[in-house]
Fold:
Amino acid sequence: MKNAIKSVMLALAAFILIVIVFPTAAFAESDSFEPRLSAPSRSSSYYNRSLNAFSKTGYGMPNCTAYAYGRIYEITGEEPLIKRGNAESWWSINKKNGYYDYGQEPRLGAIACWSNHVAVVEVIDENTVTVSQSHWRGKYFDTCTFTSGDKHFGQKFYGYIYASESAFEKEDETEKPQAYKIEKTMYETAEKHNENQFSHKDLAGNEKTMLMINSRMLANAIG
Structure:
């Protein structure tokens, strides 16, 4: 019986430790992201000469690079690091300069890159991806749904550039409740001083003593 109780307590402690120390942003990413499935206003500064590096040099929309640049700017609120080159060179420019992480997994707000086209991921349904895009000397805006990794307009697929990750990191941090932030700070302080417990007043003003469970305690208990 004691062993069973001990196992339950250890499992609970491990869960609490993981939640406090390793909070996940997965839910925040899917809940907060607003997909663009209709054309942006032509007066939007992200897509015209006001802020768009490609529009300023005469290569504004309709143009896939001008659109992708503007869409990333819109999502993150930060000037994108890739601000030159044709669509065919964006993948290599990013890798060479180490601007953003990249890979083969589709993520919301990522730049999908083909051999001569770029678009922005708006919706992911398992392995099916919907992107928003513009076309040089073609459509000002449209969307396309495809199986991740497939050719697009007969072009080779390179992968995804994760240019919007900073936006999700900011949202995940701001969405945490204040009580969570306070207790996380005290937890980190207690761990720094190797203390096993700390006390503070809860939101109702009552004195509250909390056990500080860290990885060292778990290891000792399991051992």
Notes: Residues 12-29, 179-183, 208-223 have pLDDT under 50 and may be disordered. Residues 2-21 form the longest helix (20 residues). The beta strands are 102-103, 111-114, 117-125, 128-133, 142-147, 157-161, 197-201, 207-211.
